[in-house]
Predict the 3D structure of the following.
Amino acid sequence: MKAYEFEFPEDRYYLKNHVWLKQEDGEILIGITELGQSLSKGIVHIDLPDVGEHIKKGDTLVAYETIKAVSQVSIPFDAQVVEINEKLWDDPNIINSDPYSEWLVKVKGEMSERSLMQVKDAADYYEKLIAKERERFAEN
């Protein structure tokens, strides 16, 4: 499904902070949406959690620094990190190459679907967000 030119695959859930979640074999892959990565070009540093680390609901799971800002990824449930994408240590910018194949971390936890958006809701939300931003920049 698309929101303007940005793709949102139907096989995952989304958060309003440009994060996607995909259940896979009892674990949850977490990454950054195509829209989120387009806003995060030029990643110069990434802080990944340790495998085995317990992350509380709302706490920072991953932090990354771009040439313009520092961003944080948090999730709306408690989780334990079971794997990190080791390739990101050498080249954190790879998440920009294919944001739906290149994930950040894999966790175990109980996702509450109440706090997640399905693809239709995510596409609608992001489409309104993009339209609002484009309108704001057109006025300047």
User: Anything to note?
Assistant: Residues 119-139 form the longest helix (21 residues).
